[in-house]
Write a structure and sequence with these properties.
The complex is a heterotrimer of chains A (333), B (72) and C (327). Chain B is mostly beta strands and 72 residues long. Chain B has strands at residues 2-6, 11-16, 23-24, 29-35, 38-43, 48-53, 60-61, 66-71. By secondary structure, chain C is an alpha+beta fold. Classes of the chains: A mainly beta (333), B mainly beta (72), C alpha+beta (327).
Chain lengths: 333, 72, 327
């Protein structure tokens, strides 16, 4: 239903929660970097929360509709235009064959936009998910990002595809539920498994939870690399049997997605396509309800600011998110 | 007239592949930016002669930063 | 507990069991860690896998997956369905049911893998490394890494091959790359030790076999890597899931506990098998079901010839490590 005219920086097919259950076999969950934007997009077009959509990083891409359909654009504002007219975000729109959808690039806030198609993007389900793992070149659309000439279609027999399109066209998200974007992304996090006092000093953990850290230009779907931590971070002189640097540890499974992993003095938030296991400490974990913010951080510009919360707070935040998806006033009627 | 190649992505300048005085075509690669651990090619929007190179290898650029000026 | 404390529960040592720590690792993760010391002991891994099998069998509602490694198990769960304390209590109960080594029996298949030493694809990987990454790499003198491995271990190239073929290799868990297992020699007389590439390779062929530290890895697909290379085995992974062995998933190895055993073959044999796995999809893998009885294994380790052989090898290895150029 959409033909890619220009692939821009990076367009991927992703769903949520991604490919769960294979970490013990070396496969990361992959999945949407901003699951909140994808899921709200799905609801706007009448899809299930778990349907696949298109993740657009950076922008500069262009599509042509090959058929009639309904889509919703969510996430970062990339000044998208439909046949030259600005396309509103957080709202479902009908398209017709031959319509041109053109994206400029990301702007002041946010780095990834999402296109939800009514019915959900139809690519083969691989190990329980339609998500692309770009790092391993599998899943999604032939395991790769979309390029000019590719055509993505919607699932024809999905429950959403029946019942006509008029019922969802023009559906708008209640503005109070539009996620708040920033250039300093507050990420609530829980310490562990490697924390103070045995691996990191208390001052070191204080540093993590009080100093906004700039996102590196190298941030990608596997790891959002951040600015270095100071030497007083470490409570150990070396990693013992794990290696010579205090960031080393005997290989262990990572608390992925969301692990704050430190290699040398460089912290990275491991996400989506990140490594499942390795020989470096993980000092904290970004709570599930805040994972969506990480991929909206603009590389080489935005900052991540970690806030200490408890497991109870995090579980409460998950429940609030689930309740929001069910809210009566989610859409403007 | 002058044309300025602006960075299309934030990142580090991996390399500049043209020299001052060189004539270039439209859509020719002028430089490469490193972003998301990927090399991204910066293509010229116009034909012209390279007048000034404003960035060096490993300079950090933001989206829209001036990189190379062409005369045409 | 200070505000950054993460050890939310413990199980004290008992019998042959070391202290078990439950570390908070997020709102959907708990790490079960065995002892405080950063050590590499297969006995820890045996215990983890014995417990892991029981955890999986419980099929608890809300448990998403487990990720066992040498001395820890990362548990991934949905805390809105399964409360952290309930999960911990379940694991404690399982641990109490396996107090000592006498109770540790691990499901462990034996997979026989043909291997060709000094094959052309491995040679290509080493050549590419010299050309693209490190022209003066001291570990690539013979076109492979075998001579370097021999120097590091104070022995000959023939000894290295002999050691590879004369032990079963035990998988403590998968990771690093889809489908890849981390294998350890069960016979301590084959416990080679070699440094990893510095810096790493850009390309390694599918099927390459490498050793880094004391750990062996079979490369499941073409990728980068840092282990020392000496030969190539048959496919251990298939993304396309065409061959009947891979009909339920692209993995040959189970998440953990499998043993592999190498038998020497010609490069032609290996290439034929690659074709029969990926194209004709009719290769018959040699896999036997089995168990690893930890008590029997400990008896094997304490045999005079085994203990003496291991000690002798360790002494030669120490001398070798001194003589080997650093990477």
């Amino acid at each position: 239903m959409l033909k890619v005219v220009n692939g821009g920086i990076e367009i991927l097919v992703e769903d949520w929660p991604g490919r769960l259950g294979y970490m013990g076999l070396g496969m990361a969950a992959a999945g949407a970097m901003d699951n909140l934007a994808l899921q709200l997009g799905n609801l706007l077009v009448g899809n299930a929360l778990t349907d696949a959509g298109l993740e657009i990083a950076g922008g500069y891409c262009e599509f042509e509709a090959t058929d009639t359909g309904v889509l919703a654009l969510t996430g970062a504002d990339m000044s998208a235009a439909l046949n030259g007219t600005p396309l509103p975000l957080w709202e479902s729109v009908a398209v017709e064959k031959g319509d041109l959808l053109k994206f400029s690039h990301f702007g002041e806030k946010g780095f990834r936009a999402y296109l939800a198609l009514r019915g959900g993007v139809d690519v083969p389900v691989y190990l329980g998910s339609r998500s692309t793992c770009l790092f391993g070149s599998y899943g999604g659309f032939e395991g790769r990002k979309l390029a000019a000439g590719d055509i993505v279609t919607a699932v024809k027999d999905s429950s959403a595809a029946g019942g006509g399109t008029s019922s969802v066209t023009g559906r708008k998200l209640n503005p109070k539920y539009i996620p708040k974007y920033s250039n300093i992304w507050e990420l609530r996090a829980i310490p562990g498994p490697n924390s103070s006092p045995d691996y990191v000093t208390e001052e070191g953990m204080d540093y993590v939870f009080s100093s906004p850290m700039k996102i590196s230009h190298n941030a990608n779907r596997a790891a959002y690399r951040l600015e270095e931590v100071p030497d007083y971070f470490w409570a150990r002189k070396d990693g013992g049997k794990g290696g010579s640097h205090p960031s080393n540890i005997v290989d262990h499974g990572y608390n992925m997605r969301g692990a704050i992993n430190v290699t040398g003095n460089t912290p990275s938030v491991l996400i989506a396509d990140g490594p499942t296991l390795g020989g470096f400490v993980c000092v904290a974990n970004v709570i599930n309800a805040d994972l969506w913010k990480i991929g909206q951080g603009i590389p080489a510009r935005d900052k991540a600011a970690f806030t200490l919360v408890t497991v109870e707070d995090a579980i409460e935040a998950r429940k609030e998110r689930n309740a929001m998806f069910e809210a009566d006033d989610l859409f403007l009627s | 007239m002058a044309y300025t190649l602006k960075a299309h992505m934030p990142g580090l300048v991996a390399r500049v592949v043209v020299e001052p005085g060189q004539n270039v075509e439209k859509d020719q690669e002028l430089a490469v930016i490193n972003c998301m651990k990927t090399e991204m090619r910066c293509l010229s929007g116009e034909a012209g002669r390279v007048d000034k190179i404003l960035v060096a290898e490993w300079d950090e650029v933001d989206i829209g930063s001036d990189m190379i000026i062409l005369e045409n | 507990m200070n505000k950054y404390g993460v050890i939310i529960d413990t199980l004290p040592p008992k019998g042959g069991r070391i202290e078990i720590l439950f570390r908070q690792a997020g709102d959907g993760f708990i790490q079960v860690e065995y002892g405080y010391e950063q050590r590499v002991e297969l006995l820890d891994s045996f215990r983890i896998l014995a417990a892991d099998a029981k955890i999986k069998r419980k099929n608890a509602h809300g448990l998403i997956e487990t990720l066992p490694s040498l001395r820890a198990n990362m548990i991934h769960f949905d805390p809105t369905v399964l409360s952290p304390q309930k999960l911990i209590d379940m694991i404690k109960e399982i641990e109490e049911s396996i107090p000592g080594v006498d109770d540790m029996v691990i499901e462990s298949r034996i997979i026989t893998l043909p291997i060709a030493f000094e094959d052309s694809q491995t040679k290509k990987a080493v050549e590419l490394y010299l050309k693209q990454v490190r022209p003066d790499a001291p570990n690539c003198a013979d076109g492979y890494n075998l001579e370097y491995m021999a120097i590091c271990n104070g022995c000959t190239v023939a000894d290295i091959k002999h050691m590879l073929l004369n032990t079963e290799w035990y998988n403590s868990g998968c990771g690093f790359w889809p489908g890849g297992g981390f294998f350890w020699p069960l016979d301590p007389r084959s416990k080679m030790n070699v440094p990893k590439y510095n810096p790493p390779r850009i390309w390694t062929p599918e099927g390459a076999v490498g050793i880094g530290g004391a750990c062996l890895f079979t490369y499941t697909t073409a990728t980068g890597g840092g282990y020392q290379l000496f030969g190539r085995t048959i496919p251990t992974f298939q993304f396309a899931m065409k061959h009947p062995m891979f009909k339920d998933g692209p993995f040959l190895y189970r998440p953990s506990g499998d043993r592999i055993r190498f038998v020497e073959a010609s490069e032609k044999d290996i290439l034929d098998i690659h074709e029969h796995v990926h194209d004709k999809t009719d290769y018959e893998y040699q896999i036997e079901d089995g168990e690893l009885v930890v008590k029997d294994y400990l008896e094997f380790l304490s045999r005079d010839d085994v203990a003496k052989g291991a000690a002798d090898f360790l002494a030669r290895q120490k001398e070798g490590a001194k003589a080997a150029p650093r990477l």
